[in-house]
Amino acid sequence: MADTVPLTDHDISEALCDQVRQADRDRTPLRIVGGNTKAFYGRDIDGQELSTREHRGISHYDPVELIVSVRSGTPLAELEAALDAEGQRLPCEPPHFGASATVGGMIACGLSGPRRPWAGSVRDLVLGTRVITHEGKQLRFGGEVMKNVAGYDLSRLMVGAQGTLGLLTEVSLKVLPKPAASHSLRLELPLDAALTKLAEWGRQPLPLSAASYHDGALHLRLEGGVSSVAATRERLGGDSLDAGYWEALREQQLAFFCNDQRPLWRLSLPNNTPPLALDGEVLYDWAGAQRWLKSDADAADIREACARAGGHATCYTPGAAEPFTPLAAVVAKYHRNLKAELDPNGIFNPGRLYAEV
């Protein structure tokens, strides 16, 4: 990962409110941009650029209470460096896909890394947000404590919305301490044996925090107390694995992701799903619940196979006409109604997720 930029505190929320207000009056579509490292994720859109890069800084951080509030344009690496200095981290291990990745992009895309099945998703970390509405008003939703929510939980609704519901300006997050010990292993196993082992270990209190399979080997990460990690390492055996493997997997820098012209698909599937009958090369992540598929197979065939297994497929190749699985009619109606309620003039990233929203 590149060196982090110097710590900067800069609040331009008023200027952002003015730009949104003008766009709503003129009904001018806005293309919201942060670090632009995840521009490939979603449909291409046309619109006037609205950049959050200058709206940055950690506005509040309480390491004792495990809470941090940060502006949306803050580089993700800068936030992670501040947490690391206090022996803490974002447990969901979000990918960057570039040194300029921002906190706002992390929330908008909602992507999580190898630790997600064991530590939770980006959505699970969100306590509250500040959002600029289509009227150019900055509103606060949620707060800095976990509590029950009545009605729409708008803060968490922003996660994965790709900026289609409003302009995120600040988010409050739950953070966690880094573990006392960590060790990674590589075990050479056939795929069926690896999946059987993962299903078996999933029913046991082992300190697993990552599990992937490719190139004929199962890769595991153990995190937790010193004695627990040491005992599990001794029990499972295998060879030691460089800890940098997990960052390379998270950032799609492994050889699997490079120098291949086939479309890349992310398959989201229920736990313990057997291998799907699809042509192509597969890397298993999240103990098999997330699978990366490189394949020239027809998009409809890939999605049908995932649907039969109870999952869905997302195309990660830039320029895909429909990167996300089409919505069922009744679900699409709810999406349209929510978009119409929060963004009646359709100015926020129109068509980023689906053509109708």
Automatic annotation (TrEMBL):
Keyword Membrane among record annotations: no
Domain FAD-binding PCMH-type span(s) in chain numbering: 1-178
Top enzyme category: oxidoreductase
User: Which Enzyme Commission number(s) are listed?
Assistant: 1.1.99.14
* Annotated keywords: FAD, Flavoprotein, Oxidoreductase
Could you tell me which SUPFAM superfamilies the record lists for this protein?
A: FAD-binding/transporter-associated domain-like (SSF56176), FAD-linked oxidases, C-terminal domain (SSF55103)
> Which molecular function term from Gene Ontology is one that the record holds?
glycolate dehydrogenase activity
Q: What is this protein called?
A: Glycolate oxidase subunit GlcE
Q: What is the source species?
A: Franzmannia qiaohouensis
